[in-house]
Amino acid sequence: xIRSTRIRVGRNLDGYPLGPGIYDNQTRADIEGKIVxxxxxxxxxxxxxxxxxxxxxxxxxxxxxxDHFLFKEGDRFLEACxxxxxxxxxxxxxxxxAKTFLTWVNEED
Length: 109
Fold this sequence. Notes:
The chain has helices at about 25-40, 60-65, 75-80, and strands at about 50, 90-95, 100-105. It is α+β, with helices and mostly antiparallel strands. The chain has one domain (about 20-105): Glutamine synthetase/guanido kinase, catalytic domain (Creatine Kinase, Chain A, domain 2, 2-Layer Sandwich). It has a three-stranded antiparallel sheet, with helices on one face. The radius of gyration is 14 Å and the shape is globular. The termini are far apart.
């Protein structure tokens, strides 16, 4: 019996490059704004909360770590392709109330 599964989907947001092609903080902010706007439109079991990394409280951060949701700076491969620039600005995590649907914003896609 399967208790949980993980499906990884990279975004394709028209007009924006994937992470390694983003060279300025404003582009990352624009992407975050559009994705968060879409996430906030969810209803029913997908309705949830967006938690920006920048300014995340220690309590929320501890819970995200306990839930194995939190991503962090420091991966040498992401550093080499410039994905970690302007860390942690314009990055965050969205999940529904049941914690069965999770979206990372501006992580490594």
